TrEMBL record:
<dbReference type="InterPro" id="IPR001810">
    <property type="entry name" value="F-box_dom"/>
</dbReference>
<dbReference type="Pfam" id="PF25372">
    <property type="entry name" value="DUF7885"/>
</dbReference>
<dbReference type="InterPro" id="IPR006553">
    <property type="entry name" value="Leu-rich_rpt_Cys-con_subtyp"/>
</dbReference>
<dbReference type="GO" id="GO:0019005">
    <property type="term" value="C:SCF ubiquitin ligase complex"/>
</dbReference>
<dbReference type="InterPro" id="IPR001611">
    <property type="entry name" value="Leu-rich_rpt"/>
</dbReference>
<dbReference type="GO" id="GO:0031146">
    <property type="term" value="P:SCF-dependent proteasomal ubiquitin-dependent protein catabolic process"/>
</dbReference>
<protein>
    <recommendedName>
        <fullName>F-box domain-containing protein</fullName>
    </recommendedName>
</protein>
<dbReference type="Pfam" id="PF13516">
    <property type="entry name" value="LRR_6"/>
</dbReference>
<dbReference type="InterPro" id="IPR032675">
    <property type="entry name" value="LRR_dom_sf"/>
</dbReference>
<dbReference type="InterPro" id="IPR057207">
    <property type="entry name" value="FBXL15_LRR"/>
</dbReference>
<feature type="domain" description="F-box">
    <location>
        <begin position="1"/>
        <end position="35"/>
    </location>
</feature>
C-alpha cells in the first residue's frame, strides 16, 4: 500500500462521502492520515468544539485546504462551554486561505468585530448568517466591501441587521448572484429598492418577513404580514432581473392592482417560483408569468382564501392554470398548498379538478404535491394515472381521496414515490393495492387513521409509516417528558392559549434535541386535536375555526417559529400541555377522528 501513488489515494478518497468513514480510514496509516487531511475540503462544527478557539485552530491545521466551514451552535447550552468568539474567526481567516464558503448559526459570541476578520478571506464567495444576534449592518458592510469575491449572501433571523449601506454597496458592485433575506426585522420590502442595479445579475432571491401566521376572523388587517406594506409604492418591483432563475417570496403584501406582473414580465430566465401567502395577487400576475417565463420548471403556491370582490376564495383560478399549461412547456414540478379552506365549501379554492388535470396533461409533470386540496378527488387520481412522466406524488390532508383513488394511481406508468398524510378515507384495503403492484420505490404514510403498519409492509422498497395505532405510546411518552407535575389550571383554557402552548412545547423538544425527530411531537399534537371529547370539554367551537391553523403550523411548517415566546411563557406551556394530555388519557376508548 505504501508504494501506491498519492494521486490514486486522493482519487479513492473523493469517492467516500461519509465523514465517519473518512475519519476511520485516516487512522489506517500515516500516509492516509496526511492525504485525507489534505483532501478534506469541508467541516461542520458546533457545540462539540471545546475549547472552541484551540480546537478550531487544531482542525484548520489538520485540514489545511478547507473551502467550506459550517459553525452551528443550535441547541447550545452553558454546559457545552464557551462558544467560538471573535478570536475564533480571526484564527479561521488566517489558517484557511482557501475558504470560499462560511456559515455561522446561533453564534452569540460573535459580533461585528469578529466579522471584520473575514476581510482576510479574499476568496470568500458565500456567507450565511443565521440567528447571529450580535451582528449589525456595520459588520456586514465591512465584509461585503472587503470580500470582493462574495456572490452569495444569506441573512436569516438577524434582528440587528438593517438595510443601509451594505445593500446599496452590493447593488452598486453588481457581483451578487444569490440573496436570501428571511425573518430580518430591520429589512422591509421597500428597502430592497436600495439594491438598485444589483438586480441585473441576481440569479436567486428569497425574501420572507418574520411574522408569518394565519389570519382568522378575529385578526386585524394584514396581521402577520409585512408591516412596511405601502399600496402606493408603485415602483416596488420595477427593476430589471433578466438573469433571475430562482424566486421565493413569503408573507409579503403587494398592491393588488400592481401585483408582481411587472417583475414576472422581466424574469425571462426564471425556472423556479415559490409564493407563500403573498397578498394582493390575482390571475393577471400568473398570466404575465406564463407569457414571459417560458423556462419555468417548478412552481409552488401556498394560498389561503381572501375576499375578492364578491367572493371568498384563494388568489388564483383555473385561468392561471390554463395560462401555465399553454405557455410553460418545461414545467415539471407543481406544489399547491391550501390552508384555511373549508372542506364543505370547495369554492373557497379558486382551482378546480378539471383545471389542475388540464395542466398535468399539457406539461411534462414529474412531481405533484397537494396539501389541503379539498377539490381534488378520486376522479382526479384517475386522470393522474395517465400522466406519462409522473414520478412523485404527495397528498396531505386531501379529504376527498379514497381507496378508489389509490386503485387508479397505481396504474401511473412512472410513479415510484408516493406520500400520504392525513388522508383518512384511505384504508388498509386501498394500501393493499399498492403492495400488489410492486412498482413503488418509496412509500410514506403518516397519520392516516385507517391504515395499519401491517398493511403497509412490502408495499415499496422503502416504507415509512406513522399511524394512529401509535397514539397511546406516543401520548404516554409525551407525558413522561414533563419535568414536574402539572399545577392547577382552569378546566376550560382558551384554545388560543392552547395553540401557543403546544407550539412552544413542540419547539422546546425540538430545540433541546430531547427528541431528534419532531414527528412524534407533531403526532401527539395532532392526536390531541383529533380527540373530539377533549374539544367538546374545553371549547366545542374551536376545531371548526382553527383546524387549518393547527395543520399549517404543525404539519406544513414542522420547525415552528416561536422565538418571541419568553421563558416564563414556555414554562407555563408545560403545565397546560400536561393538563391537555390528562384530558386525552381519561377517555382513551372514545377516540373519534375527523
Amino acid at each position: 500500500m505504501e508504494d501506491l501513488p498519492e494521486e490514486l489515494f486522493a482519487e479513492f478518497l473523493k469517492r467516500i462521502t461519509r465523514t465517519s468513514d473518512l475519519n476511520s480510514l485516516s487512522l489506517v496509516s500515516k500516509q492516509l492520515y496526511k492525504i485525507e487531511g489534505d483532501q478534506r475540503g469541508a467541516i461542520h462544527v458546533g457545540c462539540g468544539l471545546f475549547p472552541a478557539t484551540e480546537a478550531l485552530a487544531s482542525l484548520c491545521t489538520r485540514f489545511p485546504n478547507l473551502c467550506k466551514v459550517e459553525i452551528d451552535y443550535s441547541g447550545w447550552t452553558a454546559g457545552h462551554g464557551n462558544q467560538l468568539d471573535n478570536q475564533g474567526l480571526s484564527v479561521l481567516s488566517s489558517h484557511c486561505p482557501s475558504l470560499t464558503s462560511l456559515g455561522l448559526s446561533f453564534c452569540s459570541y460573535i459580533d461585528d468585530s469578529g466579522l471584520g476578520y473575514l476581510a482576510c478571506s479574499k476568496k470568500l464567495a458565500s456567507l450565511r448568517l443565521t440567528s447571529t444576534l450580535n451582528i449589525t449592518s456595520r459588520g456586514l458592510l465591512a465584509v461585503v466591501v472587503r470580500c470582493k469575491s462574495l456572490s452569495a449572501l444569506h441573512l436569516i433571523d438577524c434582528h440587528k441587521v438593517g438595510s443601509k449601506d451594505w445593500l446599496e454597496y452590493l447593488g452598486s458592485v453588481g457581483s451578487l448572484e444569490e440573496l436570501v433575506v428571511k425573518k430580518c426585522e430591520g429589512i422591509s420590502q421597500d428597502d430592497l429598492l436600495k439594491f438598485g442595479p444589483g438586480w441585473i445579475n441576481l440569479q436567486k432571491f428569497v425574501f420572507e418577513i418574520k411574522k408569518r401566521f394565519f389570519r382568522n376572523d378575529g385578526a386585524g388587517p394584514n396581521e402577520g404580514y409585512d408591516p412596511s406594506y405601502n399600496p402606493h409604492s408603485l415602483n416596488m418591483y420595477d427593476f430589471s432581473c433578466e438573469d433571475m432563475k430562482d424566486l421565493r417570496l413569503a408573507g409579503i403584501e403587494i398592491a393588488t392592482e400592481k401585483g408582481l406582473r411587472f417583475l414576472f414580465g422581466r424574469c425571462k430566465a426564471l425556472e423556479k417560483l415559490c409564493l407563500e401567502y403573498v397578498r394582493g395577487l390575482n390571475d393577471n400576475d400568473m398570466i404575465a408569468l406564463s407569457q414571459s417565463c417560458n423556462n419555468l420548471k417548478s412552481i409552488s403556491l401556498w394560498l389561503d382564501p381572501q375576499n375578492y370582490y364578491d367572493t371568498f376564495r384563494t388568489a388564483f383560478t383555473d385561468n392561471s392554470l390554463k395560462a401555465l399549461s399553454l405557455s410553460c412547456p418545461m414545467l415539471e414540478s407543481v406544489d399547491l398548498t391550501f390552508s384555511g379552506c373549508s372542506a364543505m365549501y370547495t369554492s373557497e379554492i379558486g382551482f378546480t379538478r378539471k383545471g389542475l388535470v388540464s395542466l398535468i396533461k399539457s406539461c411534462p409533470i414529474r412531481l405533484i404535491v397537494l396539501r389541503g386540496a379539498n377539490f381534488f378527488n378520486d376522479k382526479g387520481m384517475k386522470a393522474l394515472s395517465s400522466a406519462p412522466l409522473l414520478e412523485t406524488l404527495e397528498l396531505v390532508d386531501c379529504k376527498a381521496i379514497s381507496n378508489a383513488g389509490l386503485r387508479f394511481i397505481v396504474r401511473a406508468p412512472c410513479l415510484i414515490n408516493l406520500t400520504l398524510r392525513l388522508c383518512d378515507r384511505v384504508t388498509n384495503a386501498g394500501v393493499s393495492k399498492l403492495a400488489h403492484s410492486q412498482k413503488l420505490e418509496s412509500l410514506i404514510i403518516e397519520r392516516c387513521s385507517r391504515v395499519s403498519e401491517q398493511a403497509v409492509r412490502g408495499a415499496a422498497r422503502s416504507v415509512q409509516v406513522c399511524t394512529t395505532q401509535r397514539a397511546g405510546k406516543t401520548v404516554h411518552n409525551f407525558v413522561q417528558l414533563m419535568k414536574w407535575p402539572p399545577k392547577f389550571v382552569s378546566s376550560k383554557p382558551s384554545f388560543e392559549v392552547i395553540k401557543v402552548l403546544l407550539t412552544a412545547e413542540c419547539w422546546l423538544r425540538y430545540a433541546s434535541l430531547s427528541s431528534p425527530y419532531l414527528s412524534d411531537l407533531v403526532f401527539a399534537w395532532t392526536f390531541c386535536c383529533r380527540y373530539l371529547p377533549l374539544c367538546e370539554r374545553i371549547c366545542r367551537g374551536f376545531w371548526t375555526a382553527y383546524r387549518c391553523t393547527f395543520l399549517a403550523l404543525v404539519v406544513y411548517f414542522p420547525q415552528v417559529d416561536v422565538s418571541e415566546i419568553q421563558l416564563p411563557t414556555w414554562l407555563g406551556c408545560k403545565v397546560f400541555a400536561a393538563q391537555i394530555i390528562k384530558f386525552c388519557e381519561t377517555d382513551i376508548a372514545e377516540v373519534v377522528v375527523w
